[in-house]
Amino acid sequence: MAEKTPQTLKTHVRLDPPFHLFLLPVAAGTIVYEIYHLIRAIIAGVFHFNLAWNVVLALAFAVAVLKFRLYALKAQDRVIRLEERLRLTTLCAEPLRGRIGELTEGQLIALRFASDDEAAALAGKALSDSMRSADIKKAIKNWRADYFRV
Known about the structure:
Elements: H1 17-44, H2 49-91, H3 105-111, H4 116-129, H5 133-139
Helix pairs in contact: 1-2, 2-3, 3-5
């Protein structure tokens, strides 16, 4: 894999240009465009069912685009949870190892950025202090990059 820009708390959020810069604007623009035509027709007194149906189709397209993205993210979250539970099982000593299952999905996903040296201690702190994922990310000193998340 080619060298990547080091990730930090400030740079770990990724932009997916085909999704964020093409699909989302096209979906939003299509909704606006179709609603505009529907309102124009209603004002002119020439309402057509097809115009209303186009608004419904534009909304369906936008929902589909968002759902496809959410399905992919949810699948990635499941894999991350599994990976982090496995990693923490090898890094944590008892009795913390027995409490790994108590970590929330958000906590596990945030812990993926913690280096092996600090992951166990941070997991224990997350459990004892009920840390949110944003707080876990802020507490990480040695960032472990995740270049595979889309």
